[in-house]
Amino acid sequence: MLEDFLHFTLHNETPEPTAGTAPSGVRWRWLGQGMLELSPPRQVDTHMVLSAGIHGDETAPIEILRDLVADLASGALPLAIRVLVLLGNAPAMTAGKRYLDDDLNRLFCGAYRKLPHCAESPRAAALERAVAGFFDEAAGARWHLDLHTAIRPSVFERFALLPHRTAPYREDVFDWLAALDISAVLNHREQSNTFTYFSCSQHNALAATLELGKVMPFGMNDLTRFAKVTDGLRLMLSGQPLPQGAPRPRIFDVVGQLDKQSERFVLVVGSQMANFTAYPKGTLIATDDGYQYAVAHEEERIVFPNPKVKVGLRAGLMVVERVV
Ligand SMILES: [Zn+2]
């Protein structure tokens, strides 16, 4: 099973037995579809959740996690931390879709309870239970890296989204993000219902959503484009020291949000621009009934522009670079 964890997940098969010890000595427990805990034989003080496929069509990170699990099982990659590997939305993965009914990454922190008939709601609940159970037994450092790929190109090919939290992030978090080939970091300033906000706010984990490149179907990914990310993950899993010399990511703060208040919402700047496209002060970005958004800072950049979202949802974020 550990050689092809993804196969079991996509076919909704349960391995028999559901726990064991791999040839490498790594102990494993199958906690449900797409949920696998791996731990080294000795006690460790770092606990990491690694998730992918929260959006079912973002296949490259899913394939990366599949390959990492296989290497941890065979011993090709030594395991020095405890890790919970989660493949998020298996039915959407099988269907080749981002989601079936609703975006799973908007359903955490209990938000799924408001959508009882949505296909994704039970999955959000199951993932929350798995993370809670994993961190309940965790004394020491807690991490959660949620791996994604983006629909549109980006000025910065790989970037991280850090959920809002009151305490500042430790400096080594940015060094690790640099080691994972992340060149920009976006700080959220408000609460949300994302998976990483859940881990951060409810389980005190250092959590980051990583956008690692472009969406492609299963088998179509050129995983060499993700080699530096994979190398960074291998270092983290095997407890190796941080590589030196990677440039620190540029840091951006959210300064505005484009809200789709009605079907008359218009993204004036178009909808095909890359993430982090910059606009000068005064540029009219979006209009809606009795609402408009114009750039108020010297320069603002747009992230995740999407005028097609449902009314009432966020149609984009505006960010500015932090001067350090
Ligand atoms: Zn995604």
Automatic annotation (TrEMBL):
<dbReference type="InterPro" id="IPR055438">
    <property type="entry name" value="AstE_AspA_cat"/>
</dbReference>
<dbReference type="InterPro" id="IPR007036">
    <property type="entry name" value="Aste_AspA_hybrid_dom"/>
</dbReference>
<keyword id="KW-0479">Metal-binding</keyword>
<keyword id="KW-0056">Arginine metabolism</keyword>
<comment type="similarity">
    <text>Belongs to the AspA/AstE family. Succinylglutamate desuccinylase subfamily.</text>
</comment>
<dbReference type="Pfam" id="PF24827">
    <property type="entry name" value="AstE_AspA_cat"/>
</dbReference>
<comment type="pathway">
    <text>Amino-acid degradation; L-arginine degradation via AST pathway; L-glutamate and succinate from L-arginine: step 5/5.</text>
</comment>
<dbReference type="InterPro" id="IPR050178">
    <property type="entry name" value="AspA/AstE_fam"/>
</dbReference>
<feature type="domain" description="AstE/AspA barrel-sandwich hybrid">
    <location>
        <begin position="249"/>
        <end position="322"/>
    </location>
</feature>
<keyword id="KW-0862">Zinc</keyword>
<keyword id="KW-0378">Hydrolase</keyword>
<feature type="binding site">
    <location>
        <position position="58"/>
    </location>
    <ligand>
        <name>Zn(2+)</name>
    </ligand>
</feature>
<feature type="active site">
    <location>
        <position position="211"/>
    </location>
</feature>
<dbReference type="Pfam" id="PF04952">
    <property type="entry name" value="AstE_AspA_hybrid"/>
</dbReference>
<protein>
    <recommendedName>
        <fullName>Succinylglutamate desuccinylase</fullName>
        <ecNumber>3.5.1.96</ecNumber>
    </recommendedName>
</protein>
<feature type="binding site">
    <location>
        <position position="55"/>
    </location>
    <ligand>
        <name>Zn(2+)</name>
    </ligand>
</feature>
<dbReference type="InterPro" id="IPR016681">
    <property type="entry name" value="SuccinylGlu_desuccinylase"/>
</dbReference>
<feature type="binding site">
    <location>
        <position position="148"/>
    </location>
    <ligand>
        <name>Zn(2+)</name>
    </ligand>
</feature>
<feature type="domain" description="Succinylglutamate desuccinylase/Aspartoacylase catalytic">
    <location>
        <begin position="47"/>
        <end position="233"/>
    </location>
</feature>
<comment type="function">
    <text>Transforms N(2)-succinylglutamate into succinate and glutamate.</text>
</comment>
